[in-house]
Amino acid sequence: MNRCEDGNTDGRMVPRTEEEIENVIKRLKRIEGQVRGVQKMIEDNRYCVDILVQISAINAALNKVGFSLLERHTNHCVSKAIQEGNGEESIKELMSVIKQFSK
User: Fold this and answer.
1) Which residue in 73, 96, 17, 98 sits closest to 82, CA to CA?
2) Distance between CA 13 and CA 54 in Å, rounded?
């Protein structure tokens, strides 16, 4: 199976840049803070609708990170695999992850 970002050295991966890593980490830390905020809202017995709005924002933020990673994977890893003649396996893997991600 093609593993673009898993750190293997078989030549199929396209490593993320330091900037890409930093941007994803920043987003995830922001989401982590939002989750902590929801925990505090529960502890403080806050209004359910306010909590649900925050949960919706967290879901949207996670989806944004996921789509960003999906786009990067397609533009770098899948593209590279196609150029190298290994596109069929990579596209199959991509479609599988899209199905999983969209559940």
Assistant:
1) 73
2) 36
Cβ atoms 34, 61 nearer than 8 A: yes
Say how far apart CA 34 and CA 75 lie, in whole Å. Answer: 30
The DSSP 8-state label assigned to residue 73 in this structure reads: I
* Digit-coded pLDDT (tens) for 69-87: 999 999 999 999 999 998 9
Tell me the average pLDDT of the chain.
Answer: 89
Q: Exposed (0-12), middle (13-18) or buried (19+): which is 8, by Cβ within 10 Å?
A: exposed
How far is C-alpha 54 from the geometric centre of its chain's CA atoms? 19
Cβ atoms of 78 and 98 closer than 8 Å: no
**Distance (Å) of CA 54 to CA 58, 100, 103:** 6, 24, 21
Show the domains of the chain with their CATH numbers: 18-101 (1.20.58.1000)
Q: Which residue has the tokens 């920043």?
A: 26
